[in-house]
Amino acid sequence: MTQELHIIGGGMAGSEAAWQAANAGVKVVIHEMRPKVETFAHRTGNLGEMVCSNSFRSDDHEQNAVGLLHWEMRQANGLIMQMAQKHRLPAGGALAVDRDPFSESVTAALMAHENVSVSYEEITELPTEGHWIIATGPLTSEGLGRAIQAETGAEALAFFDAIAPIVYFDSVNMDKAWMQSRYDKGETEEERTAYLNCPMTKDQYEAFIDALLAADKTEFHEGETAGYFDGCLPIEVMAERGRETLRFGPMKPIGLTNANDPDNKPYAVVQLRRDNALGTLFNIVGFQTKMKYGAQKEVFRMIPGLEDAEFARLGGIHRNTFINSPTLLDAEMRLKSRPNVRFAGQITGVEGYVESAAMGLLAGRLAAAEMQGRTIDGIPNTTAMGALITHITGGADAKTFQPMNVNFGLFPPLDGMRGGRKGRKERYKGYTDRAKIDFQQWLDGQS
Fold first, then answer.
1. Residue 50 is labelled as binding a ligand
2. For a tag site, which of 6, 272, 327, 358 has the least CB within 10 Å?
3. For the segment 18-72, what is each residue's pLDDT rounded down to a tens digit?
4. Rounded to 10 degrees, what is the CA torsion of 140, 145, 147, 152?
5. Domain named MnmG N-terminal: which ranges (predicted)?
6. Is 81 flagged in the annotation as binding?
7. Which domains does the chain carry?
């Protein structure tokens, strides 16, 4: 009987894993519970649906670790990067996408592949036979979550992730707001004017912080604790850490000049990024929130330019779960106690769309090779993918393990490179140059 690879979850990791394995000649079944079983964050049953931001972050593959990860995934014929490029939106130096056409294209590409089929049902038990990849992400269903806990003998770790609101562009007052990317970054005029900016004076900023701190917030269920991932903190939590925190974070005014009042430098700036190709929707950058819906409207309409804002989606908060990968997974992402099961994506403790898809890419290739009796050399930890998988499968301290974005701090040091801020540009270029050579050699070894 023909062997099949079963993948639970059709998000970024599951979709990429399916694509990689199918292209290697393996029959793949994607088990996706949506739309029959809904989640708090998803809106459709599409594969590869983006539920939070519409950005894959920096696309700079010479000076940025996530940009390097983009490069590696493109070299490996990654589906997620192909479709992101196809539906790219202007976003300065970032890779932002038109989310609905993106997920529709991911779905269409997988459905059209002769080696891929999709089964729409919820899996609630940990499989005992066959080849499986669990890529259920941060919103793993309650039933499967219990099964994973029962198998591992450990509580799944948890943190809370918050979603930023989306505003209709035609409700923004452009007499107060203006279009500009920070430092006018981008190669085209469209890129250099990719962000919508709303300025604040010191008094407006102080009043905004007061309202933010006083607003009604979503309460947690009994027994839950707010263990936020620092890369996706709700703005009110940031404000609680200090009144100036937001002004040095998502509301920093540097690199921006108010086109409506160029002689006066804003004290703080709220940025919005285009969320669809038509330019009718913009999401408020870095404004993840756990405020109640009514409070969100009141507080966000205090932002100059958003006084009459209409919201296509308000912010929200949901629980994200991930396993303690350093103790539970081997170097090939297999569950040590049940090696027929691999884990991939955000549930392994990586954070971000790109990182999740990258772990799916590796899991799909590793599973396909195992099923075909091939051996893939371990991916070098000098690459972005290698640095990530090394971190989650043993490089991190299991006692303090938390979700991690890709960053150059995970890479082995370069000999002879100058340390500190002054040597950073040369050092980052050294990391990416080395990674590209090592990654290409690793890829060539599989052909």
1. no
2. 327
3. 999 999 999 999 999 887 666 655 667 799 998 878 999 999 999 999 999 999 9
4. 110
5. 5-374
6. no
7. 4-156+323-444 (3.50.50.60), 162-319 (2.40.30.260)
